[in-house]
Write a structure and sequence with these properties.
The chain is an alpha/beta fold.
C-alpha cells in the first residue's frame, strides 16, 4: 500500500492523468499503468475515470486523506530533524560524580546553554549504581565518573585525570613533620602529576589523625579505603558525608582531615586554614570518564555536549 502514492496524489491534485504526467516528467501511459497497478494491489478503485475532470471514489477519498496524513507526519519529522541538527530544540540529561556536579559540569553547561539556549538540559545528582540504571533505561544520556564502567556495555571517553590528596587542618600537629611535603597553591592543578614520589606522603603518617570521609557506597571512599589498606592503616573516621564539598567544609573548621581530588581546590583561594599533600600510592591518580550506553542513538545535542565536555576538561588538564 502507498507504493505509488506520489503518482496518485499528483493525479488527484491535477484532476488529470495528462497534467500529472507532465508534472512528474513521465509518460501518461506509464503513470496510468502505475495507478492501475496500485488499484489492483489494493483491490479497490481510487479514481472514477468516467467523470470529467477525473474524481475520487469513496475509497479514493480515504486513500488521499491517508496520504495527506503521511505528508504531514513526514514534514513534522523533517522539522524535528532540522531543529535537532541545528540544535533549535531537543533535550539532554547529564549526571556526574559528587565532584563533577559542583565543580566540572556547571562550567560546561553554562557554555552549552549560551550557545544552544533552546536545548533543555537536566542535571541529575545520583550514585554510580543509580546512574547505571538510568543509562540502561534511557532516562540518562551522559554520565561523568571516575569509576571505570564495563566497556562491553558503555562507551567510555577519558576526558580528565585527577590526583587524590591529603587535606589536613593547619592546626593539626602532624603538619609539623610534613613541612617539606606541603603542596603549594601552584602545585594543586596539573603540576601535581610532576611531583616526585619522594614528596608524597603515605597513609601511615596519618594513622592517629581523625578523618572525615565519604560513605562506603561512594567510589571515592572505596579508593581511599584501598590507599589506607595498602599501608596497613585503619582510619579513625569521625564523620561521613555524601559529597566531597561537605568533607571539605568540615575539614576547614578543623574537625578532621579528609581526602578528595586536587580538582576541587586547584582554583580556590579560600584555603588558608588547610594544608595539602600528595598521596604516596599507586591508587591516588585516576582517570575521569564520560560514559553513555553502547548501541543507543546519539542525538545532535548529545554529540555537542560530548565534544564540549571532553574538550573543556582536557583543556583543563593539558590533554588526557
Amino acid at each position: 500500500m502507498f507504493h505509488n502514492r506520489d503518482y496518485i496524489f499528483a493525479v488527484y491534485k491535477n484532476r488529470s492523468f495528462g497534467k500529472a504526467a507532465e508534472e512528474l516528467h513521465i509518460s501518461q501511459p506509464s503513470l496510468s499503468a502505475a495507478v492501475a497497478k496500485e488499484e489492483k494491489l489494493l483491490g479497490m478503485q481510487i479514481f472514477n475515470r468516467k467523470t470529467s475532470p477525473i474524481s475520487l471514489t469513496p475509497f479514493g477519498q480515504e486513500y488521499i486523506r491517508a496520504v495527506e496524513n503521511i505528508h504531514e507526519m513526514e514534514e513534522h519529522l523533517q522539522t524535528l530533524s532540522y531543529e535537532d541538527h541545528a540544535l533549535q530544540s531537543g533535550s539532554i540529561s547529564i549526571a556526574a560524580s559528587n565532584l563533577g556536579i559542583p565543580h566540572v559540569i556547571p562550567r560546561v553547561i553554562a557554555e552549552f546553554k549560551k550557545t544552544y539556549p533552546l536545548v533543555d538540559i537536566r542535571i541529575i545528582e545520583t550514585s554510580t549504581s543509580g546512574a547505571k540504571q538510568m543509562l540502561d533505561s534511557g532516562e540518562l544520556d551522559l554520565f561523568v565518573t571516575n569509576r571505570p564502567l564495563d566497556p562491553e556495555k558503555y562507551t567510555r571517553i577519558v576526558c580528565d585525570r585527577e590526583c587524590l590528596i591529603w587535606v589536613v587542618p593547619r592546626e593539626f600537629g602532624v603538619n609539623r613533620e610534613l613541612k617539606d611535603f606541603r603542596l603549594r597553591p601552584e602545585e594543586l592543578g596539573d603540576a601535581i602529576f610532576s611531583i616526585p614520589e619522594e614528596r608524597a606522603v603515605p597513609a601511615k603518617v596519618f594513622e592517629d589523625v581523625p578523618f572525615i570521609l565519604l560513605h562506603d557506597t561512594n567510589y571515592l571512599r572505596l579508593c581511599v579505603n584501598i590507599i589506607f589498606q595498602e599501608s596497613g592503616v585503619v582510619p579513625k573516621v569521625v564523620m561521613e558525608f555524601e559529597h566531597s564539598a561537605s568533607s571539605y567544609n568540615f575539614a576547614s573548621f578543623g574537625i578532621g582531615a579528609t581526602v578528595f581530588s586536587n580538582r576541587l581546590v586547584e582554583d580556590r583561594v579560600d584555603i588558608q586554614n588547610l594544608y595539602f599533600y600528595k598521596i604516596r600510592s599507586r591508587y591516588s591518580c585516576r582517570d575521569t570518564f564520560l560514559c553513555y550506553r553502547k548501541g543507543r542513538y546519539v542525538t545532535a545535542a548529545m554529540q555537542k555536549a560530548i565534544e564540549l565536555i571532553v574538550t573543556r576538561m582536557r583543556e583543563g588538564t593539558g590533554g588526557a
